[in-house]
Amino acid sequence: MNAAETVFVEIGVSRASMEKIAAAAGVTRGAIYWHFANKQELLGAIIQRVHGIHDAVIARAFEGGAEPLRSVLDWALEVIELFATDDHTRKVYKIIVTRCEYVGEMQEALVWQQEMRETMDANFRRAFEAAEADGHLGAGWTACAASMTLRCFMSGMLDNWLRYEFDASLAVTLRAALNCLVASFRCDVAAAQREGVPRPQSA
Predict the structure, then answer these.
(1) Which residues contact 165 (CB under 8 A, 6 or more apart)?
(2) Coil, helix or strand for 148?
(3) pTM value?
(4) What angle do CA 33, 39, 42 make, to 5 degrees?
C-alpha cells in the first residue's frame, strides 16, 4: 500500500499498473493479487486507511460535548496538523485531488471525496447552527454564511497545499489565519481570547 501511494503520486492512477506497484514494493505481481483483486481495490484500501484517521479526528472534535465553535476550531487545526505531519494523509489527498481521473472504475475515488465533503459540511452546519441558537455568532454572521466561509477556507487551503507543494512551515501561518477567522465568528471576543483564540490584529 505504501508503494502504491508513491507510484500513484509519481505517475497518476491511470498510468499506474500492478506491475509497477509490485516493482516499487519489491514483490511479485502475484503477491499483490493475493491481497487485492485489482488496482481499484488497492486504491480503495489506501483511501480507507486515511478515512479511519479522519473519522477519529471528527469524533474527538465533534462528539466530545465541547462548545460548538471550539469544536470547529479543534477539528480544523487537527486537519492542518495531519497535512503537516502525516505522509499518508498528504499522499492520499494528493492522489484524489490531482492524480486521479474520475471515470470508469476510478469513480469510487470521487464518491469518497464527496462523502468527506458532505461529512465536513454536516458537522460545520450543526456546529454553527448550535452557536447561532445560543447567540454566540457575531453580528452579520449566520450559520449558513459562517459554515460556507470556513468550508471555502479549508478546501482552498488544502487544495493549494496539495497542488503547489507548500512547505510544511506554512502550517504556522494557516493556524494563525484559522484562529483569526474563527474568532471573527464570535460575538464575544473576550470569551474567544479566554479559550485561547487570539483576536484578529489590524493591518
Answers:
(1) none
(2) helix
(3) 0.75
(4) 75
